[in-house]
Amino acid sequence: MRSPESKPYLVTRRLIPENQESPIPFISAAVTPEQYFYRRNHFPYPAISEQSFKLSVGGEILRPLVFSYQDLLRLPSKEIMVVLECSGNNRRHFAPKVFGEQWEGGAMSQGVWKGVAVRELLKWTGLQATAKEILFEGSDYGSRTDLEGEFVFARSLPLEKALHPDTLIAYALNGNPIPYKQGYPLRLIVPQWYAMASVKWLRSITVIRTPFNGPFQANDYMYYPEKDSDAGKMPVTTIHVDSIIQQPIDWSVLEVGAHQIYGLAWTGTGFITKVEISTDGGNHWEPAAIQKDPGNPYRWITWTYTWAATQKGEYTIMSRAADSLGFAQPAEARWNRKGYGYNAYSTVRVKVE
């Protein structure tokens, strides 16, 4: 266990571009502090200019418009608490191993985002009947190892998701302007979807009539169930139901006695209904106490379980969650060659002395 005076820190996966994990085992607040918010980048950080504070809306609309930052601040706004999780979170646990950033459990964070619903902007521009998807383009760009040329990070959403009242053009996080490394000045926030959809440094919105096939939509962020073919590929969208054991930490040494096992659970569908704990490697399961928050449907929930460790030895502790739509964590995650959507039981090993 950590000592009271210890301080957590981000876990570095790569420096250029910067990819760092949140110290999830030590995050106790519902809102992740800015300095501990995880960072996921495909390219170097973009330069912020005066143009960065303008948002253009074009394509299959009736009235193309450019909104200034101040325009957005004057429009009707809302605040929502949202867990953002990288779709590659826990990639290192896949077997067989897959290439990519070897995230453990910290490619996720939670905050209160404030902004304007995309649908609110489109009230001003209107939509043409030909509209099929909405494309969101960031300011970050660079080269890839698999394709020639330079590419901007861009993603599209189907109309239904883009026009959901809680899909936001955010300009504030936790009551302050969005931090630069989290997408300042504007970031798309798409609740319940993996965070690749929440485009940072947003600079343009384009309503399109055909499916978008940019590399971060058609090449990456697709589930490829076969190692050597594209058969059965499917897009990465909704967050899978999941949980994580925060304490005790993996490979901890504990004393005989009572111990609090606690952690987080979250889902992209409905809400968490139960979390179960096993202290014997999955042979027996007991319910954990969960702290529901019906007023915040997109946040993680906390859970606790009191374990009476009466005998010395080595133990495998597991957690599993289930949600209101019947989805549950599996014993094994569904393997895919890019390593997305890992959500097998959370597991830690401890020794009681």
Automatic annotation (TrEMBL):
<protein>
    <submittedName>
        <fullName>Sulfite oxidase</fullName>
    </submittedName>
</protein>
<dbReference type="InterPro" id="IPR008335">
    <property type="entry name" value="Mopterin_OxRdtase_euk"/>
</dbReference>
<dbReference type="InterPro" id="IPR014756">
    <property type="entry name" value="Ig_E-set"/>
</dbReference>
<keyword id="KW-0500">Molybdenum</keyword>
<dbReference type="GO" id="GO:0006790">
    <property type="term" value="P:sulfur compound metabolic process"/>
</dbReference>
<dbReference type="GO" id="GO:0020037">
    <property type="term" value="F:heme binding"/>
</dbReference>
<keyword id="KW-0479">Metal-binding</keyword>
<feature type="domain" description="Oxidoreductase molybdopterin-binding">
    <location>
        <begin position="42"/>
        <end position="214"/>
    </location>
</feature>
<dbReference type="Pfam" id="PF03404">
    <property type="entry name" value="Mo-co_dimer"/>
</dbReference>
<dbReference type="GO" id="GO:0030151">
    <property type="term" value="F:molybdenum ion binding"/>
</dbReference>
<dbReference type="Pfam" id="PF00174">
    <property type="entry name" value="Oxidored_molyb"/>
</dbReference>
<dbReference type="InterPro" id="IPR005066">
    <property type="entry name" value="MoCF_OxRdtse_dimer"/>
</dbReference>
<dbReference type="InterPro" id="IPR000572">
    <property type="entry name" value="OxRdtase_Mopterin-bd_dom"/>
</dbReference>
<keyword id="KW-0560">Oxidoreductase</keyword>
<dbReference type="InterPro" id="IPR036374">
    <property type="entry name" value="OxRdtase_Mopterin-bd_sf"/>
</dbReference>
<feature type="domain" description="Moybdenum cofactor oxidoreductase dimerisation">
    <location>
        <begin position="237"/>
        <end position="352"/>
    </location>
</feature>
<dbReference type="GO" id="GO:0043546">
    <property type="term" value="F:molybdopterin cofactor binding"/>
</dbReference>
<dbReference type="GO" id="GO:0008482">
    <property type="term" value="F:sulfite oxidase activity"/>
</dbReference>
